[in-house]
């Protein structure tokens, strides 16, 4: 597809390819695959015990969303800082910052969605081999500090794992909703409209969740 013939594009990658950073990727949106002009998006599938090669991004920013597993991201000129990416975590990596990621599980894959403001981001990934191995011992210590994980047999990543990866987020939403305390003041802040009679009959002591406090839907 040429840059002058843009249209909506749906992609369903079925297999992974190894990226410049040395990790399996479900390559999704890019300039070459979808005619994108300012964005790319991939699904990274860290194998058990996997790690990327140390690198930085030349001229583009990265946003990461953790889906499954736990990843340690070491970053900085000497990878001296560490950030933990877990399911539900959003991570921003500015351009030019060296970093390397480790899957903290030896038995389960870790997955994350990455978006970049570069439709040809693989061409602008710069490896930093002198930093490779610098944080291997630290990552190993983090793995060892974790309690033993249940064995689930050989782990394989496929497109169907996307549904499994997204499912745990529903429990996070439910937990957040359950933790909201419906105090009398909060209850009074909701105004019921005639359209909410069904809610009133069903749960007279609960606010109508379909309307804003000023009564607008």
Intertermini distance: 42 Å
Q: What's the domain count?
A: 2
Spans where pLDDT lies below 50 across 5 or more residues: 148-196, 206-217
Percent of sequence in beta strands:
15-25%
The CATH class label of the largest domain is Mainly Beta
Number of helices: 6
What is this structure's SSE topology?
Blueprint lengths: L16 E2 L5 E6 L1 H4 L5 E7 L8 E3 L4 E7 L2 E5 L5 E5 L4 E4 L5 E5 L6 E7 L8 E3 L8 H10 L15 H6 L1 H11 L5 H5 L8 H6 L15
Description of the structure:
- By secondary structure, this protein is α+β, with helices and mostly antiparallel strands.
- It folds into two domains: 17-166, Jelly Rolls (Sandwich), CATH 2.60.120; 181-217, no CATH class.
- It is built from six helices and eleven strands.
- The strands form three sheets. Strands 1-2-3-10-5-8 form a six-stranded antiparallel β-sheet. A three-stranded antiparallel β-sheet has the order 7-6-9, with no helix packed on it.
- The two termini are 42 Å apart.
List keywords for this structure.
single chain; 217 residues; Jelly Rolls; six-stranded antiparallel β-sheet; 6 helices; disordered C terminus
